[in-house]
Amino acid sequence: MKKQILLIGNASTLSDTNFGKTIDSYDCVVRFNKFDLSNIYKKDYGEKINIWIVNGYEYKNLPKSHKHNTNIEQIYISSTTKNVNDIKKYLKMKEANKYYFFDKTYNEDVKIKINYPKKFNISLGLFSIIHFIEQGYDVFITNMNHTPTHYFENVNPKLGQNHNWKFEKDYIKNMVNTNIISEIYP
After folding, report:
1. How many domains does the chain have?
2. Is a pLDDT exceeding 70 seen at residue 10?
3. Which of 68, 148, 165, 172 is the one with CA 20 to 30 A from 114?
4. How far is it, in rounded angstroms, from Cα 51 to Cα 113?
């Protein structure tokens, strides 16, 4: 039996759903970039995190609470930066954490594999879905509405304009409809 992994996006679609316990019941929970695990959001968005996936260009903007979260087992950093040690030092994660870096070549390979429109950048969400499928996980997703919104903050409307949200929504919908991944919701 494959290990189940749940990728939870940062959309606001789970507000007032009491879905947190369901999220936390998965073997492995993946969160992206900034997120908020404070008590105000716990009942809807859970508090578990095993894997954290972060953009290399955004790591310095992350909340300080993330840098010392001892529950994080693995950190995946999508980065074109050449100085990986600067990122590790900045994040101040304990040595037990495993770091993985997605380089630009891997990112481009995934885009080619799924025929992603060339002038756009693939989002961490879709990129991660593809990655964990390739790693042999049974992938579940929730709270991914394929738009640049966050449940915990107001977002600049221009955020995410470099992604092709329609392509991503259609591609993920096709993966759900063909049982390649599963989408859970309250």
Report:
1. 1
2. yes
3. 148
4. 24
